Amino acid sequence: MARSKRALALLAAAAAVSATTSLAGCSLLTATAPVHTPTALESCATGHTWALDVEALAPVATAAMHEHTLNVQVVVEGTQQLTWDTDFKMTFDTDLTFRGVIDGDYAPGYEEQYTVKGQSEGFAYFSGETAVPRNWSEDDLDTEITATQDGAPAADIIYPWIVLWTDDTVGLTVTCSAEQLVLAGRQSPLSWTFNRVS
């Protein structure tokens, strides 16, 4: 009986050594991270630099103001450049001026000017044809609203300006071709048309 117990103990010890050796061998193997294969839309939109079509934005901004019952005609001047890299980081370099003139006789001679300068950035990940912004920062973005009445400074701001870029709350529908990128805010009248720079 003692021999049987000794034999069982030796077998158990041998099994434990064998298992430890096997596990040690397994520890040399490393899991391979899955490789992301970009979709055609992702390849078109990311890894490039895009320049905002300022003329195309003016009627879009005007329509957005009208949708918010603000009878304002908008003129847009300046530049905005979007860099969207292959890690899905989006960076907007903005130097834009929106000049709003009230329609009709509500406030003749009255204009507001909305200036936006600086950088905003975050990540925008794809879910089908929608880009979902995350971790958005506008810390380096400066905005200012000024008003004039018949060319002289006016104290009152009559109408608010709606947000004209992206953040964590608005998903973006993306359409892309070799030369043009269009970002449209979901459930929003806003869309931005960009022409490819590189």
Summary?
This protein is an alpha+beta fold and 198 residues long.
What does this protein look like?
It is a single chain. By secondary structure, the protein is of the alpha+beta class. It folds into 2 domains: 1-30; 40-196, Lipocalin (Beta Barrel). 23% of the residues lie in helices and 45% in strands. It contains 3 helices and 9 strands, in the order ααβαββββββββ. Strands 1-2-3-4-5-7-8-9 form an 8-stranded antiparallel beta barrel. A hairpin with a 7-residue loop joins strand 3 (89-102) and strand 4. The longest helix is centred in the N-terminal third of the chain and has 25 residues, at 2-26. Residues 1-27 have low confidence and may be disordered.
- What distance separates the N and C termini? 83 Å
What is the architecture of the largest domain at the second tier of CATH? Beta Barrel
Q: Going across the major beta sheet, what is the strand order? A: 1-2-3-4-5-7-8-9
What is the CATH class name of the largest domain? Mainly Beta
CATH topology of the largest domain: Lipocalin
Structurally, the number of domains stands at 2
Number of strands: 9
What structural category characterises the helix and strand content? alpha+beta
Q: Please, how many helices?
A: 3
User: How big a fraction of the residues is strand?
Assistant: 35-45%
Rounded radius of gyration (Å): 29 Å
Largest sheet: 8 strands, antiparallel, barrel
Topology order in helix (H) and strand (E) letters: HHEHEEEEEEEE
Overall form: elongated
